[in-house]
Amino acid sequence: MRELLPVLLDRLTAGPVALARVVATSGPAPRQLGAAMAVTAAGEVIGSLSAGCVDSAIVHAATDVLDTGCAVGERFGPADLDDIAIGLTCGGEIEIFVERIGPERVADLADLRASVGIGRPVALATTLTTRPLWRLDHPGATGSWRGLDKDIADLRDAGRCGIVGVDDTEAPRVCAADRPRTFVHTFAPPRRLIAVGANEFVRALCTVAKNVGYHVTVVDPRPVFTTPARFPDADEVVVAWPGRYLEDEMDSGRTDSATAVCVMTHDAKVDVPTLVSALASDRVGIIGALGSRATHDDRIARLTVAGVPRDRIDDRLRSPLGLDLGGHTPAEVAISIVAQLISERNGGTGQPLRDVEGPIHRRVPGS
């Protein structure tokens, strides 16, 4: 839904919009929790909720919601080829909540967009009721809300989306008005990718990584090459010695186990100090270095001379970086690198799907 926020704020200037979000899934599902689609009164559809199998039904539901103002929940299960009913061909189940939003939501959406923009953890709690209530929950928020404050904060702090509370059909002895069934839509700060080097491979990596949600920093000590104009898709372009920069970032707490460091300069006086710093710390996650087999062998030898234990190198360093896709151009290399980042983050194998058993859509660890 991050990408929909500026669009929603823009379309709300013309009138109410129907917002549909995935609030629950079971089994293999085409989209993750929080995936969103908006439908305007003029019939414009922005975003999607599936591979197309349920979107048309949601557009019809959204039209009704715009007319009545009453929110609805829609559930879809596995598709039956002998049944005319709409279903999911992937075999999973999905619950979608559709509500009408108008000018009364502009302030909350603007606040949400601002929080996402500065990387502040925030959760949007929405009661799954006919007339939904909203609450934006930031770290340090005060005041009680529907008896769900701790539940919302726990999901927000874990960076997870989910449903909290109860409804009358599931827990008839608990008053749903006190703890209504509520979707907690969490917007965690984007994962960081620190790309070392100011070259065309890093430029391509910025574009691909940005498109899958990374906050990308380019760092290189050469000011003539390290400029925002050369890296328009980077969030930050820093002129500094990468090893020192990385140590400062780690010491200040601006990196964590979700941070990826990709060293792509092919210059030992830059590569080696950066990798020594990264490998010595647990405050970064994936550590990779681009290069040929010969470059890799030379790099390992230099790291060993610098005092990095060989088992630490073998356990932590992805070198040569990237999956074996057979590509050569900067864009192809960037895709192979980001594919490896995605695979390792989600516990994937990197193999062709036809050669892998089990569900295609795995649950992300911690979700």
Question: What's the SSE blueprint?
Answer:
Elements: H1 5-11, E1 17-26, E2 36-40, E3 45-47, H2 55-68, E4 72-76, E5 93-101, H3 106-118, E6 122-127, E7 134-137, H4 149-158, E8 162-164, E9 182-187, E10 192-196, H5 200-211, E11 215-220, E12 236-239, H6 242-251, E13 260-263, H7 268-279, E14 287-289, H8 293-305, H9 310-316, E15 317-318, H10 330-346
Parallel strand pairs: 10-11, 10-13, 11-12, 13-14, 14-15
Antiparallel strand pairs: 1-2, 1-5, 2-3, 4-5, 6-7, 6-9, 8-9
Helix pairs in contact: 1-3, 5-10, 6-7
Structural summary, described in words:
Residues 15-71 form the XdhC- CoxI domain. Keywords: Oxidoreductase. Residues 346-367 are annotated as: Disordered. Residues 193-341 form the XdhC Rossmann domain. 31% of the residues lie in helices and 20% in strands. The longest helix is centred in the C-terminal third of the chain and has 17 residues, at 330-346. The chain contains ten helices and 15 strands. The chain has two domains: 2-118, no CATH class; 192-346, Rossmann fold, CATH 3.40.50. By secondary structure, the protein is α/β, with parallel strands linked by helices. The two termini are 17 Å apart.
Keywords:
single chain; alpha/beta; five-stranded antiparallel β-sheet; 10 helices; 20% strand; elongated; XdhC_Rossmann_dom
CATH class of the largest domain: Alpha Beta
Q: What is the CA-based Rg, rounded?
A: 23 Å
In CATH, what is the homologous superfamily of the largest domain? NAD(P)-binding Rossmann-like Domain
Structural class: alpha/beta
| Structure annotation, total helices | 10
Largest sheet: 6 strands, parallel
CATH-defined topology of the largest domain: Rossmann fold
Q: Any low-confidence stretches, pLDDT <50, length ≥5?
A: 80-85, 168-176
Residue-averaged pLDDT: 88
- The string of secondary-structure elements, in order, is HEEEHEEHEEHEEEHEEHEHEHHEH
Shape: elongated
Q: How are the strands ordered across the major sheet?
A: 12-11-10-13-14-15
Question: What percent strand?
Answer: 15-25%
At CATH level 2, the architecture of the largest domain is 3-Layer(aba) Sandwich
Number of domains: 2
Region (Disordered): 346-367
EC number: 1.17.1.4
Organism: Gordonia insulae
Enzyme class: oxidoreductase
